[in-house]
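Anyone else keep sequences and structure tokens together like this?

Example one:
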Amino acid sequence: MNTLSYQAPATFWEEALPLGNGRIGAMVYGGVARERIELNEDTLWSGRPGHETGYQIPEQIEAVRQLIRDGRYAKATQQTNEMVGPHDSQSYQMAGNLYLDFGEGSEADDYERTLELGDAVATACFVQNGVAHTRESLISTPHQIMATRLKGDAPGSLACTLTMDSQLHHSCRVDGSALILSGQCPRENRSRGADDIVWEQDGVGGMRYLVKVQLLNQGGSVSAAGDSLVVSDADELVLLVAIETGFVSFDQDPSDDLAAMEQACDRTLAAAVAVGWEGLKAAHVADHRALYDRVTLDLGEADARPTDEILKGCTTPEEHPALVNLVFNYGRYLLISCSRPGTQPANLQGIWNDKLVAPWRCNYTTNINLEMNYWPAETCNLAECAEPMLRFVREVSLSGKRPARELYNARGWCLHHNSDLWRYSYTGGAHAQHAFWPVGGAWVCQHLWEHFAFSGDREFLAEALPLMKDAAAFLLDFMTENGQGQLATCPSTSPENSFLEPGSEERASVCEGSAMDMTMIREIG
């Protein structure tokens, strides 16, 4: 059970097939008359480095603590909402869409669309007007490029128009046989609505980036038509896609040098052209399988039906071990595809996003989701894929010193429930049940210990221990005596949960020493 297969093209984004090399991501639709490839790059986020102001936590926290100890949880929740105020992380953004319009109808025979999980190659095959077409796509880690090959079994059977667009501010142009999109992210995109997006502030916008598509044709011709490329009568086409952004570091302003980004794309493209499709594919498959083949799970049952048919027929996992096997392999595939050494960690959607305003900003939600992404890393012998997460902890331990000091007058560092490319560590949202939870540092530190527990790497442990000690130092300073000779967090929340206040039955979400908090503190202790 190592293949996703379908008998029709994707009709919406969630049906498309995901490819990735940790940095570059793509969703491939497999369309017949029109192919759409949605592109992502893991450093393409709104915003710039900065810190938050406007909190009332230092002035009001003692009053909230007293309300909690008096049993007035609803009032304490209301006051916690007020002292936190509206703050949140930035948003992960999509780079753009690459379209191939073929000028033919969508009717085709013998259609099949697959994603081979072991090879990390997406393929669409079909017959149209008597010509058998094969389209293969991959995203290479060794060559840092996306590559797509289109081939028909009749000479001169390929004709299409290539265009690009994006929901971000952008422009497109053609340079010879290359199609280029340059764009810019919003300066601020922290909301859940497009009306609140700020594209520029004090003359400064967000991250700039460039996508360059190099078209290689065998036979036929390639010509420019405005900001499009037109292919006529080709035998075979190879599309190479390089993406560069202005990202420098989580604590430095990004570069606006589009010329340098294009030069970097040109170097990547030139290296890929020199290798050719077969060389790119061979290196890519070998690199991917070096990770994917480390673990084999065989639950003793296979199912050759298309994947959507398997899903439709599933009632309970116990009755469908083949689907369980496929989901296990797909999970490993996704982690390999969206988290590699040197890349950003997997966000809420891994590395794939097609929206300007994504659900929950497609951020790093640290009260469970970020951690869940990496549960398979050590247990499935994919320790290399955990490197972005481990680096994230090191970086957020630096950014988290400011809110620890400014909001809580505490040592060490803290992390609330949302973060982003810029290692945002302040509160997220205006409601206490999710916003007020400065215990995230304790949870992400568990991944440091897990890495040591699996690897036995004492050199790594020597680097990780100071981070864990500083996270513990914050918690020691944040906790207060509960009147029974014990230390407890206060205010405390069980993330995203609420309860009814005894007696009044009013909805509340803050208390003293939630089980969630105390469990995390016990673990890091």
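And example two:
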Amino acid sequence: IGVTTGIVALLGLTIDMGAIPFINPQAVGSIFLFILAVLLTLTLSNAVLLLKSTLLDLVRLEKKVEKPVRPNIVFSIIGIVFLLGGYALALDMVRGTQSVWTTIGFSPIALLTLVLVVIGTVLSVYSFVPFVCQCVKNRHRVLYRENTIVVVPKFMHRIRSNAKSLILLILLVAGTLSVFGATTLSVWYPYRAVERIIPSAIEYRVEDEQQSKQAQAALAEGLNSQEYQVQETNLLKITATSDHLPDEYSISGEEVRTPGFECMSLTDYNALLNSQGKESSISELSDDECVLVKYRPDPENSDVGAVYHLNIGDGATTDVTVVQTTLDNPIGFANSVATLLVSDQLYQTIAKGQSEQITVVSINGGTTRTDGAAYTILKDAMPENIYLASAWQRQTEIIQQNSSTYLLIAFATIIFLIATGSILYFQNLSAVTYDRDDYNILQRMGYNRNMIKRCVRRQIQIYFVIPYMIGMLHSIFAIICYKSALMDDVLGRASEVILPIALAIGIFSIVYFIYYQVTKHSCYKAAIN
């Protein structure tokens, strides 16, 4: 309950804590059955082991298991190649429709990527890591040091029995970081995407002019002295022909909007961006030039240079050339998708052709973007207006619709993190406790307490660093694949992806470091009498 409450408070989730039972009988029953199945399995496996072993075998069981490894350069290379192959397939997702994930199929490539990464991890731990240790062991100048001469041979001697746990830890770290990174990305990115989906704090399309005036009057009365700006923008709906019409022209088809452009004058565009606190990069346009507002990023600028034949009324047409594309849309996508910026003179010419006009009211300033008061007033005044959109309302809706998912993912992340830290703690403490006699011998040979501590510290660091580094690599490529496959990129800014991933890695690293410190001090006590 405490963990759940903390997650709900941290993420600002809209979940009724009172609706979550303190004890769920069904969950308790499932856990009990699972634990019972595990205990029965362990009992049977241990019984089989005891029946097959003599008393002498049991006494020397650990010595029998811990056979020195013989590094295999071929398997090491295969392991690294498999890992690189898995990473390359994950990165290929960035190519979108041209990637093998689309041309061949998502499921087979996903399965192939998973197999390559898992097999590569297994071979790397069983062959590449011991191979690196063997290289260190063969370099006498590096080996014959007070710490290395103890730590490296001991690690190579125990890697056979610890390889499986290292593989498990790597996959646990990778899974924990991947889930945590996906959670932060899933929370952060939709919030940031609202900046483009609804660029103004509130906007709506005017369907009834009298109703719009009444709504604005109610808003002025409800917000009292709060400062805000109201701006009306007339968009001209026109059709066009071209050898290269953009995807935005026909997006949504006939169900929501008819194909066409929504033309906006450059003056209105710059004024609206200014009210939103943004700077326009477009200073002027000639009558035969236009700027296309893109829905998604277009790194290749495939629309630049396209010529559109605009139907301006009475059978007349005019040609405009796309000189630039931009992601700074001034109107939300609920009201305008294919926004085309034209010069003021051309805008007036099109308007005289009696084109269909769409009037959009944009409201900015004050707390209209972070507070729901303004939206509530307008919603009450225009309950039937389906084009009323609010940045605050959209962000709140995102949290409400995904609260249960965020809670489940965050809870799973915490469980994985606890499992990872606990395994590392008890594994290292067990290993150091088992080697206590060896450390006592080192003390008799002249090693002081600080030297013993350094040996223990180096031994612990190996078991913490290997899962952390390899697991983090796995998770980074997994998150890149997740973002490219499941998240619609409307921002086109790499920093919007880097920040939440860096935040997830940073928080995980802090908790991981705390586990390391606790493990280190516990092992000091176990090693030194």
